[in-house]
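Lab meeting, item 3. Inverse folding demo.
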């Protein structure tokens, strides 16, 4: 199951990076039609760093959601008291994960558009670093539950 989750995380990272690259190409070339939409407002292409960080965050959040719900179903307790009640409800957990991921990406995009590019990248590196710690902790708990 962990392999399936990791494969899904990796494929979502690649898909996000590919779609972000396509939107960056459209922004850099305003006359180019991408899919069915024409890019009308030029913006600065963000390169590969942010889309990869976005994909990594989505994968880490997916793993955290899956591992938390699985561990709670096996009898573990949620270590974060702020979401202890949410962890027992898979729908609420996934809604929380989508919201947290969206909010982080929105914050980084807002910084990027305000020409605070280093801040956008630093924000995503910090959020991903926190999520790596959470995922590592969840993996150790899942290992003990086996």
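The presenter then showed the designed sequence:
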């Amino acid at each position: 199951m962990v392999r399936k989750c990791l494969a899904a995380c990796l494929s979502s990272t690649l898909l996000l990076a590919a779609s972000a690259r396509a939107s960056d190409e459209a922004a850099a070339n305003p006359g180019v039609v991408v899919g069915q939409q024409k890019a009308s407002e030029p913006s600065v292409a963000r390169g590969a760093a942010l889309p990869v960080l976005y994909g990594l965050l989505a994968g880490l959040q997916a793993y955290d959601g899956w591992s938390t719900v699985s561990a709670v179903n096996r009898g573990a307790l949620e270590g974060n008291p702020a979401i202890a009640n949410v962890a027992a409800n898979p729908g609420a957990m996934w809604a929380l994960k989508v919201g947290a991921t969206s909010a982080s990406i929105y914050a980084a995009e807002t910084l990027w558009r305000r020409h605070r590019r280093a801040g956008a990248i630093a924000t995503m590196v910090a959020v991903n670093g926190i999520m790596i710690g959470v995922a590592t902790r969840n993996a150790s708990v899942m290992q003990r539950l086996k």
